[in-house]
User: Fold this.
Amino acid sequence: MTQNPQIVTDVEMAAALAADQVLQAFDQGTFSVGGVLLDNTGKLIHALHNNVVKAKTTFDPTAHGERQMIDWYFEQISQGGQLPSPAEMTVVTSLDPCCMCAGSILHAGFNVTVAAFDTQSGINYDTKADFPTLAPTVRAKAKSTFSYPAVNGTTSFARSASGAPVPKFFAQPVIDEQTQALCLTAFLATLGSVRDSVSQDLPPDELIDPTTLAADDPIIKALQDIYPQTLQYRGPARSAPDQELLPYLTRAAAIDRQQGGPGQAVALLDYFGNLLFCLPGNIAASPIKTAFMLTTRSYAFLRYSLKQQIGQRVYQYLGHPKYGTFVFLLGPDDSAASLIDLGAYGSTMEGPLPQDNPNQFQYWNASMDPVALSAYCAGLPPLYSQVIKVNPVQVAVAAKRA
Ligand SMILES: [Zn+2]
Assistant:
């Protein structure tokens, strides 16, 4: 942030500020993506970059620039900060938002101006700004708020404008190809290397059941700090949980409702079937603090902080979440709010699911027809539909498969 309010008068200037954040992300060794938040006079309100990786360790798989920007905004509001409504603000991002960030932007109601396309995980992966993935009402909103300005130049980085018109306060609506090229190539340069540098996870046959730890072990203490009932339930490993899990979900769902949510709760079971957490969302604090978001972030932060405290030993007991099971009380649907969770799930999995864990993502009660949900997920951008193959299954269906 600059000390004096900086007024951003054209799209190139905004994209260049986003590109500054891209370079900082590159230096941090995380995914090179960044952005700025502007009000509708062009005033620079905040600047942020990706923070998925810190010190070569996964810090928070959901710490994308846009997601953090939106939580920052609602944090300011909750502390009495005077900021315009989301509809009067624009997120300018170096890279097309992923499903989680697009869902967050659409659900919270911000405008967005995008520098580079992302044909793997961007919501506009087909680069036509037609958003075929989205349900009709969400698609209409994306078409009126997601702007892909023209890029000036003679190379393949140049493009014509698509999507919504750029916000009116931009006097000049064009990005220079050098800025665009930096946003894209710096991201692509970190795509594989960052994933490799954080890959410290053990294969499942080297994991140890955390219930074998002493009661005063720092891992047990840290789990209890997040969820006092941790390890009190154990279901069949990598299969469907039984009815005994339901009371944990309904208790958390009651808190979710008190905190402004729909009565959602998400349980994380480990590779052995132990319940690690079952948490509600906190929509009252921020409309994007969903139960899944808080569950996956709590687990990532737990592993990150224990790694600083006790070193690699943490990974023997707390494996990569892809080897465990997420159980939602309410299944996803095709709303913007659910897109946040489906996208954050993809960011949590990071890559292909283990072949022997097809029931990784389960839900108790369906929110939409399961066949329609599978079709919707199959239409998500390629990272989600073809690499990770996000496919939530109802607990009852998973039980029959087992
Ligand atoms: Zn994102």
